[in-house]
Amino acid sequence: MFNTFAIESFVDEIAADQGMDPIAFRLERMGAAPKARKVFEALAQMADAKSKRPDGRALGISITERSGSLGAGAVEISLDRASGKIRVHKVWAAIDGGLIVQPGAAKANVESAILYGLSSVLHERVTIKQGAVQQSNFHDYSVMRMSDAPEEIHVQFVDVDTRPTGLGEIGNPFIAGAVSNAFFRLTGKRLRHLPFTPERVLETLKA
C-alpha cells in the first residue's frame, strides 16, 4: 500500500502541475497499457469523474495492483477543518481480475479490502516508546467503526476472459493514494505520512 501511495501521489502531483485531469494524464502521458486503460475508463464512467462534486467534497483516484490483478479506484471525501477528520463518502473500484468465477464472493472480497484499507489509512496506528508498543487492545488501538464507513461502495469487474487472478487484497492498495489525492484537490496541500490522523491533517493544513 505505501509504495502505491508514494507513486500515485507523485503521479497526481505531476498531473496537477500540468493542469491535466488525473485520469487523462495517466492515459495520455504515461502510455497506459490496454489493461490499465480499460480499468481507468471504466472508473471514469462509474464515478462520473469529470462532474462537479458537491460543495466541500473532492474526488481522488489511484491505480491498484495485486496478485496479477489490476484496477483503478476513486474516493469522494470531505474534511472537517476544525477537527482534522477526513470522511470518505463514496468509493468506486474497477477491477480486471481475469475471469470472475464467483461474482458475489469476489465483490464481497474487494469490498472488505476497501474497508480494511480505509481503516488502516484513517484510523490505525501503532506507536512505540522505549522499544515497546504502547497500544494493547482496541480501547487504545483505533479501528474504523460502522459510523465511519462510506455511504456507498461500488465495485465493477471489467469484462475479460483471461485466466482468473488474485482478488484478496486488490481493494486495499489504492486507498491511501486516492484519499491523499482527493485531499489535495480539497485543500491544495499534500499529505505525506500515513496514517492520515486528524492531528497530522491539522498539521498539514497549518503548514
Protein model, in words:
With 207 residues, the protein is of the alpha+beta class. Helices cover 39% and strands 21% of the residues. It contains 6 helices and 6 strands. The protein has a 4-stranded mixed beta sheet with strand order 1-2-3-6. The model has no long low-confidence stretch (mean pLDDT 95).
Lay out the secondary structure:
Blueprint: H1 2-17, H2 22-29, H3 34-46, E1 57-66, E2 69-80, E3 85-96, H4 103-122, E4 128-129, E5 132-133, E6 152-157, H5 174-187, H6 198-206
Parallel strand pairs: 3-6
Antiparallel strand pairs: 1-2, 2-3, 4-5
Helix pairs in contact: 1-5
Overall SS class:
alpha+beta
Number of strands: 6
- What is the level 1 CATH name? Alpha Beta
CATH homologous superfamily name? Answer: Aldehyde oxidase/xanthine dehydrogenase, molybdopterin binding domain
Q: How are the strands of the biggest sheet laid out side by side?
A: 1-2-3-6
Rg from alpha-carbon coordinates: 17 Å
| Number of helical stretches of at least 4 residues | 6
CATH fold naming: Aldehyde Oxidoreductase, domain 4
Q: So, CATH architecture?
A: 2-Layer Sandwich
Q: What are the segments in which pLDDT stays under 50 over at least 5 consecutive residues?
A: none
Name the helix and strand elements from N-terminus to C-terminus, one letter apiece. HHHEEEHEEEHH
Shape: globular
Largest sheet: number of strands, sense, barrel closure = 4 strands, mixed
pLDDT averaged residue by residue: 95
Helix content: 25-40%
Tell me the count of domains: 1
Q: Calculate the terminal CA-CA distance, rounded to whole Å.
A: 25 Å
